[in-house]
Amino acid sequence: MFNPIDYILNTTGLARTKKVLQVNPTAPPCREEPAKSLITVFEYNAEKAECKKLETVEETFPFLNSPSFTWINIDGLRKDDVDTVCNHFGIHSLIAEDILSIGQRPKMDEINGIVFCLLYMLSFNEKEACVETEQISIILGKNFVISFQEEAAKDPFNPVRDKMKVAGSKVRLNDADFLFYSLLDYIVDHYFIVMEKMGDKIELLEEEIIKNSGNRSLVKLNIIRKEMIVLKRSIAPVRELIGGIMRSESELIEERTQKYFKDVYDHIIQASDLSENYRDMMMNLQDLYLSNVNLRMNEVMKVMAVVTCLLAPATVIGGIFGMNFENIKWLHQNSTFIVAAASMVGIPLLMIRVFRKKGWF
């Protein structure tokens, strides 16, 4: 059934505004759970790398004491599965709550010898022209890494898996903390791809505003501003997250891996600065749009003022000779009409010459 309210919200972008701004991490999660979680286990060391797909989370239990390093990835958040895995691997209940939360700010925690990170993978939806976010939780333990992904249908970490399949790769030659770094590094590097898409949209909008700004340009301007809010809210806290890892004294993060986190920190600073630059550009585009609107209005007012001035002599002359008096000098002479008509035409022509000489139009 057609709902005019929904139509107005979707048309004007108010529905997107509500989704972007109304975020309450303390509210009970109302996420629709998938029918089944997709569980992938990567067991690896310098000599071998083996990938397995499991049916239930209970099958991950033996990997807790595996002699090799293990990466357990769970696509799709189901409360029972998350609680089961956290209980078995000694992960605190507060971390389990953060994994299941919605709208949580990117953060880093270190509880009971476990390093936990929560942040967002960003992607750009070309069809809807919006930035999509997926909450990702990554846990570093002794000889294992566990990652929880919100979407069961999407898995952004395939490039990391491809590196792990290559013998002699750095992921295979290092401990679990290097895999932990690799996942964070891939998420941060993907921010630049999304921002590049947003940069293209901003450039097109700038060109449109300069050439022909109108109501459509204003709508696009507001839409992109909302997406910049999503970018800023997702990227800015990651700087603090990476900084917390660098300051951590956890035994799980070796000293030789610290320099790699420094590289991620440099990237996230650059991404954060770029998002600020985009925000400034949007403010400048808004000022440019308002300037163009005011300039167009001034041009219209200028034309109307010129037309009014040109019609003023005819109005005055017609008003004088149209007054209801009988004793008006020259009123009944034959040449009066010719002189009046000539004046009505000649004076505006003279005014046009004067206006052009002064450069008023």
Number of helices: 10
CATH structural class of the largest domain: Alpha Beta
Instruction: Give start-end ranges of low-pLDDT stretches.
Output: 1-12
Radius of gyration: 34 Å
The oligomeric status of these chains comes to single chain
Give a quick set of tags describing it.
Beta Polymerase, domain 2; 2 domains; rod-shaped; alpha+beta; Methane Monooxygenase Hydroxylase, Chain G, domain 1; 361 residues; single chain; 10 helices; disordered N terminus; 7 strands; 15% strand
Could you walk me through the main structural features you see in this protein, from its secondary elements to its overall organization?
The chain is α+β, with helices and mostly antiparallel strands. It folds into two domains: about 5-290, Beta Polymerase, domain 2; about 305-360, Methane Monooxygenase Hydroxylase, Chain G, domain 1, CATH 1.20.58. The protein has helices spanning about 5-10, 15-20, 80-90, 95-100, 160-165, 170-175, 175-210, 215-245, 255-320, 335-360, and strands at about 40-45, 50-55, 70-75, 105-110, 115-125, 130-140, 145-150. Strands 2-1-3-7-6-5-4 form a seven-stranded mixed beta sheet, sandwiched between helices. Helix 7 runs parallel beside helix 9. The longest helix has about 70 residues, at about 255-320. The model is unreliable at about 1-10 (pLDDT under 50).
Furnish the topology, listing elements before pairings.
Layout (H helix, E strand, L loop, with lengths): L3 H9 L1 H8 L16 E7 L4 E6 L14 E7 L3 H10 L4 H8 L6 E5 L2 E12 L4 E12 L2 E6 L8 H7 L5 H4 L2 H37 L2 H33 L7 H67 L12 H25 L3
Parallel strand pairs: 3-7
Antiparallel strand pairs: 1-2, 1-3, 4-5, 5-6, 6-7
Helix pairs in contact: 3-4, 7-8, 7-9, 8-9, 9-10
